[in-house]
Task: structure prediction
Amino acid sequence: MSIPDGALVVDEAGVVAWCGRFADLPDALRTADVRDHRPGFLLPGFVDTHVHFPQTFSYDAYGGEQLLEWLDRCIFPAEARLRDPEFAELAAGAFCDRRIAAGTTSAMVFGSAFPDAQDALFRETRRRGLRIVSGRGIQTDGPEAASALVTSEDDALALTRDEIDRWHAVDTGDPATARLQVAVVPRFALSVTSRTLRGLGELYDDVRGRGVYFHTHLSENDRPGTGEIAQTTQKFGCRRYLDAYDGRFLPDSALGGASLLGRRSIFAHAVHCSDGELARLAATGSSIAHCPTSQQFLGSGTMPWRRTARSGVTIAIGTDVGGGDEWLIPQVLADAYKVHMSEPAAVALHPAQLLFSGTLAGARALDQESRIGNFDVGKDADFVVVDPSRWPPLDAALDYGIRSSDAELARDQTLFTLLTAMREPAIAEVYVAGSLVA
Ligand SMILES: [Zn+2]
Result:
């Protein structure tokens, strides 16, 4: 819905009390303080469902090849630097700065292997007032380049459990209202052993009821023989990649433990899933963090939009910084538009679909649709103020771009320009639950 000259009324608790045309504002609300943002725009806060904290300084890192080589050459060494608590503190501040600049009010954050670094991330996020779900990156297996990030299997489980106990919903004591929440986060199937997968399944079964999340990568690089998908199915002997996370990590996809899928489970990428894998994700209420910017950067291919959407799985958007070299969700949405327009089964994503993917779909993936994602009365008021005058190219495109004589199409064209021509300087203010974050 688009409301020209609209008003968003936020109550003292930071909850949306009313949303509609300013002219229709009920008398009882007319006494409120009014902040006039005309001719700007209010949009729901952006939701990034896949972003890597320990890669804060690793976007636009030249690795020369695709995913696995880029991890070895650029990412594992960069993530090892967070072993130094002072550096981790610096990274946590910079990470929150970038989130605020980009208007990302909620995020599923792939964490550092190091508990001190995760403490710094949660502390800083709390101080800045942002929403976060994060968990330490779990690795119990991997190449030499990852050795600083690898722990024993027992330590991996103990550190994960400890992080949940220390940070999950600690800010309010209730996951239904908390801004700080924890996820169980193995980097991907290649970074853990089958024993670890069994242990994580037991652990996750234990903590699901507390609202803990699960997050990992799925089906990203399909280079024949040596890519991530080929190596995963070879390593576990499973028939399809998703089975490794679904308790079926034994040869021939035999059941070896509990499933990690569910309505608080988000899988990044899912570029090359079979129809059966997509159906299983949908049936379990799991979600996909779609990261088209990263998929271009690492040559991972294009997630088939029509086939994936048809499966019924929730498709939210992720920057995947640093595989993605863009922090701003609207720019990732612009990439989504371009890559799906260029698919064999080309689709021109509607501007409202783009906005939905970067906001309410993210809230749904986080199982927080009843709290955030749009301006429905009763939700927390998470929003960004976009002031086009702060980014003249956006201002000019809005002022002088061609618009249809059809009012609805003209509205959609304006939204498309707003999203795709926006850059970070245009985001003037960012609010979480009605409070300005800075
Ligand atoms: Zn990633």
Observations:
- The chain has a mean pLDDT of 97.
- The pocket of zinc ion is lined by residues 50, 52, 110, 217, 268, 320, 323 (CB under 6 Å).
